[in-house]
Fold these 3 entries.
Entry 1:
Amino acid sequence: MFRSPVALTALRRSAILSVLLVVAGCQSGPTLQSISIDQAQGSAQNIQSLTAAVNADPRNPEAYNVRGIAYGRSGENDRAIQDFTTAIQLDPNFYQAYANRALVLRQTNDNAQAVADYNRALKINPNYDSAYIGRGNIYRVAGRNREALGDFQRAIDLNTTDPRAYHNRGLLYQIDGQHRQAIEDFATAISMDANAPEPYAGRAVSYLALNNVEDASDDINRAIQLDGNRAEFWATQGLVLEARGDKGKAYRSFAHASQLDPSYQPAKDGVSRTRGSAPSA
């Protein structure tokens, strides 16, 4: 039976902020990356074919760049970096290879070198939107929000078609409490890629912060439908159910989030708040 949403209590506002801080710090999942783990494109068979292309034309920087992407998608970061480096040695103006190497360096937590590579890419091509987005995401996760916002805005001003620019700017608006602007950016990201779960989850948090529980529910359920293995999504669903007054179902969502990631604090806090409403065995 439908329950009217209850007013946000100070405790649940704190819980929403807790989820918001974690989500804003970590949402850059595989569907929003330029190089993501892709078993097909990073398969041994595909890499073997790309190696044949490299051997056939060892002075072609694009061949190394394409194989580097495949290595990155397979998780072979050292080989990916080596191929991007070779591509750059063959063509010092190959700004895409700098940006691709930066993304892999970021995935290995070498953020200083990644920023340096993004800077090189942008020096060669000041209108390369992907480099602004990649560098901005490093700044965002590092808490350098003003610099991050500048990079995402620059990419948007360049009419980027990459949803990450809007998604990540939305996260910055969200952490600053500008939830209506965040919702607009998440909506734009969704319009560009309706199968990416992160913008739905981000928008759900902002809807919930505005006490729009029904739209928050629709969005977080969609995010879970697209990727049911993310603890932060289930914890947000728990908050939505808690806002509806359905603490029994909220407990189950928080408990599932804790199973997916036992260290995820918002899920543990949610379990503690709703434990008394847990269904009996």
Entry 2:
Amino acid sequence: MHAFKFRAIILVAIAFILGCNEFIIVGILNDVGHQFNVPVASVGYLVTVFALVYAISTPFITLFVGRYSYFKSLMVLMVIFILSNTFSGLASSFFWLTVSRILTALVAGVIISLTITIANQIAPLDKRPWLIAWVFSGFSIASVFGVPIGTWISTTFTWRDSFWAITIVSLLTLALAYFSLPHKMSQETGNLRDQLALLKDHRIQVAITLPFFGSGGIYVFYTYLRPTLTTLLHFSTQSLSLLLFIYGLTAIVSNQLSGQIAQHGSLKLMPKVYAIEAILLFILPLVTGLQWVALAVVFCLGITMYLLNSPIQLHFLMVAEQDYPQSIVLASSLNSIFFNFGISLGSATGALVVTHLGLNWIGWGGAVYIAVAMVLVIWLNRLNARKPIKVTSHESL
């Protein structure tokens, strides 16, 4: 059990460094723009480019590495990640910084897919939801603690030092992973057609729409969280850091509750979750005149933000284990792929709503997508009832 807990910490640490690398740009926008004489808005496009490359490339690279040892694939990809992150710190121009971010995005999605796959394999059956929830929490912990620390490093020293710090932590994590994770792990071999067979299953086809519309709905609101707090709710800019920090804590709580949902009811509870989330988004525009009531609604939305993560991740993995064992790694990647596509949908929808209707309407715009997700999860539960998934356990590794 001690070995399992240590391995669990390593897997969460991998998610943490991936989160730090992905989110760090948000904290160093001004410093990068100043050094390269590039508008802050242009630096902001690095976030968009990263998310799109991440979402588009992950399934293709996942299909390739899925034929090889999980351990060796993880080690190779983490070395590429470390080199790409170091390249970001060395970038001599904005162009080369963009190239380094693209290289990092190419491997980041596959690394988290392998991390979740390994978590699913090493965890005892009753610990799977707990460990997967913690792996996802690694990203939330990065946004709450890692990014502010990286931002402090950037403002105190240079933005390049933020990347050096990530490299140092990544090297330590790589060494610990090499000596602690089991080396003999792989899925049943299969060609490209065999692996893609997973996507023909109706339970998978409906399931991938949930992170798409679910994250799309919340990101209509979340993309404009800062102006919501300052412009709509009239909180001071001095209090903004504290409010964002508290919201980050609600995101960690959300991931942990996600593990509990996966353990006690799983997807069967998600229609109620989506109903609550849709109601919160719907009433937000109605209570903006009541500052503290509206703030409570905002924090409640933070708690609902990641509740789907563990239930849908376990659904993908269990369907693959039972009927498509050659597609385990691909199954592990589906949630993060479509979550990132959902981010693009939500942020683009939010921009349209704010431009044509106004900031106060973003709650209703997000509620529409959440309502769609609620209908889809009811459909998915009916499909699962027709063809129940048999949960299997792994031998101790």
Entry 3:
Amino acid sequence: MSVPADIRDITMADAGRNRIEWAWAEMPVLLGLHEPFRAQQPLEGLRISGCLHITTETANLARVLQAGGAQVVLCASNPLSTQDDVAAALVRDFAIPVHAIRGEDTETYYRHIAAALDHRPQITLDDGADLVSELHKHRTELLEGIVGGTEETTTGVIRLRAMAREGALRYPIVAVNDAHTKHLFDNRYGTGQSALDGIIRATNILLAGRTFTVVGYGWCGRGLALRARGHGAHVVVCEVEPLRALEAVMDGYTVMPLMDAAARSDFMVTVTGDKHAIDRAHFDVMKDGCVLANAGHFNVELNLEALAEMAVECTRPRPEVQEYRLANGRRIRVLSEGRLVNLAAAEGHPAAVMDMSFANQALAVAWLARDGRGLSPQVHPVPDEIDREVAALKLAALGVHIDSLTDQQREYLSSWGEGT
């Protein structure tokens, strides 16, 4: 049976299948859900459209959803994050329609989102809220049939909460990003390792002894700062939120205004989720050779339009490096066109940490399939029992055993009468 798809090259499927299976071995929690989903069919007959990074880990999530009875269609959530061999394997070996090509232009990107929406989804999976946004802007005729959706990024959750505040959100969304077993691990350990992996692959520049500035000290920023310090870099943190800035100070980092950091940094990486975190004024004072990267969801964190206007020349000395030369001779090096550096210049988060994130996704989708019709059109947290189940399954997979409370201890924690 022919599978409707728009991918680069179906002959890449063998390589993609090998990498999917390699990641599968690192995802014991998701693997553990596969057979129960197959046996219980919690998603039987449901149409699911996912706007996600088309990676080996996403492929394994799609396998579990498909095993649970869902009809899954995928498109890319970032033009530079698609792994073309994985897309080919999903189409050939799993009969999952994929509309994603690495390096696709903006027109193709939105054409692929439209193709995913043509599936008339009942549940949406989003990574940045582009699918939800397109539904509410241009495909409103589909909204009535949607049960619910999930969102797995900080940026996407911010967009969706803004929609909910304005009364624009028309169906319930589960903020998978906010699950403890997602943001405490995926954002911190996943981004920390994979963003540095992308920076090192793209540049092959030694980090030890260099000044490495992290712009934004959320969970992703915390992980990035931790890993950069582990490589021997002098880590600077720039933050606008006083509590986070204080935490960075207490964690042992140098905290300063972004203008001061721009003048001394060898590397600057944005993880803010906001627009133009690094702007024209910062470009004006940057050191010659400063490397800029973005580990937030959208490339708007760097004002690349302003940089292009300031530059007298732009060259590509390495595949993932654009070098902008300014009129005074200074060079500013931008990685992966300001897209997510961990996916554009490397392979994204390690499978072992995505295991928890995607287990949350799968269980949240099953919960929506069961209970979503009774939820209000708001952004909802992942139920605590799902979060705890994922943590327990991960500990078991790691061979770690923990204690449990006695009946007496439970009683004490739920009472107020006993004191000194």
